Amino acid sequence: MDKIAFIGAGAMTEAIVKGVIKAELLPAPHIWVTNHANEERLQRMHAVYGVTVTRNQNELLQETDIIILSVKPKDAEQALRSLGVAQLGKQQIVVSLMAGITTAYLESFLPAGQPVIRVMPNTSATILEAATAIAAGTYTDKQQLQLVKRLFGTVGSAVEVGEELMDAVTAISGSGPAYIYYLMEALEEASSQVGLDEDIGKQLLIQTFKGAAAMLEQSELSSAQLRANITSAGGTTAAGIAVLENQNVKAAVKACVQAAAVRSKEMGQAYSK
Ligand SMILES: NC(=O)C1=CN([C@@H]2O[C@H](COP(=O)(O)OP(=O)(O)OC[C@H]3O[C@@H](n4cnc5c(N)ncnc54)[C@H](O)[C@@H]3O)[C@@H](O)[C@H]2O)C=CC1
Ligand SMILES: O=C(O)[C@@H]1CCC=N1
User: Fold this and answer.
1) 7 has binding-site annotation
2) Phi, psi (5° rounding) for residue 5?
């Protein structure tokens, strides 16, 4: 892999750029970035990360192994129409990060036979801790899939799934960091309410999250069993968990994931031909 090009210079592009540079997968100038209108944003990315920025599509796409479409779904059509007339080589892989958008829709704008891969990472790519799922389009071969898996594997972990699972993945790990931050917000507020200093509360909470995630990863026990091990009869945890049960928090979490998956599907349907 010698050159990758990002179309769209937003939050997700920045997270992946940071991670790829941190992982030393390829030198920063070999990472090319363009966007629609915000020149200041492009110049900032160049200044901060040393990536090459351009508004010239020919220059952007020339000899690029991987083209990453990182615009919002509403901007997909315009970006794809422009890619569709760009005389791409058949070895150039078009990777889409867009939630909901199917490979069939992407392929419908591109010449027949163009390899397309749908990817759902998350913002933890910034610190090489992304959870990414990858689904192949119609014309992608194993080698191309491996190349993209390697790219996203450098910024975290990457798994292959069938495209029919991408809405579920988007709802779990694409949006997932936001659920965790939401929970953290609530816990931070709660920690102040019970009298902890903000910094101390935050430090304790972050380590508690990290420790719990590492325990789940390293232990043979399930999350339910690990929880049971903390919950002494008549103790503090039991008192806290009883409130979560009374308030149906599990049902709310399940409804949250369902709503995100439904939304991903709706977005796919809104952008289909
Ligand atoms: N933010 C997140 O946590 C995640 C986002 N995604 C997906 O990544 C994509 C990008 O999301 P964000 O970075 O959050 O959006 P963003 O709004 O921060 O960035 C989008 C960028 O696309 C540019 N753009 C719009 N139309 C363009 C065009 N025709 N040509 C070139 N550039 C154009 C905008 O100028 C902007 O720089 C979305 O489709 C989203 O579904 C996927 C996983 C996680
Ligand atoms: O909210 C969104 O649509 C994007 C996709 C996954 C995370 N953020």
Assistant:
1) yes
2) -125, 130
Q: Ligand 1 pocket, 34 CB below 6 A?
A: yes
State the burial class of residue 46 (Cβ atoms within 10 Å of its Cβ: 0-12, 13-18, 19+): middle
Question: Does residue 129's CB lie within 6 angstroms of at least one atom of ligand 1?
Answer: no
Domain boundaries, the chain: 4-166, 176-265
Using one digit for the tens of pLDDT, what is the confidence trace for 64-75? Answer: 999 999 999 999
- Which tens digits make up the pLDDT trace of 77-115? 999 999 988 989 999 999 999 999 999 999 999 999 999
CATH of 4-166, one of 3.40.50.720, 3.40.50.2000, 2.40.40.20, 3.30.450.20: 3.40.50.720
Pocket test of ligand 2: the residue of 14, 101, 170, 264 to mutate, having most ligand atoms within 8 Å of its CB, is 170
Q: Which of 35, 45, 60 to mutate to test the pocket of ligand 1 (most atoms within 8 A of CB)?
A: 35
The ipTM, to two decimals, is: 0.97
The residue whose CA has the least distance to atom 8 of ligand 2 is: 175
User: Taking each helix axis from N to C terminus, what angle separates 11-22 and 39-49, rounded to the nearest 10 degrees?
Assistant: 20
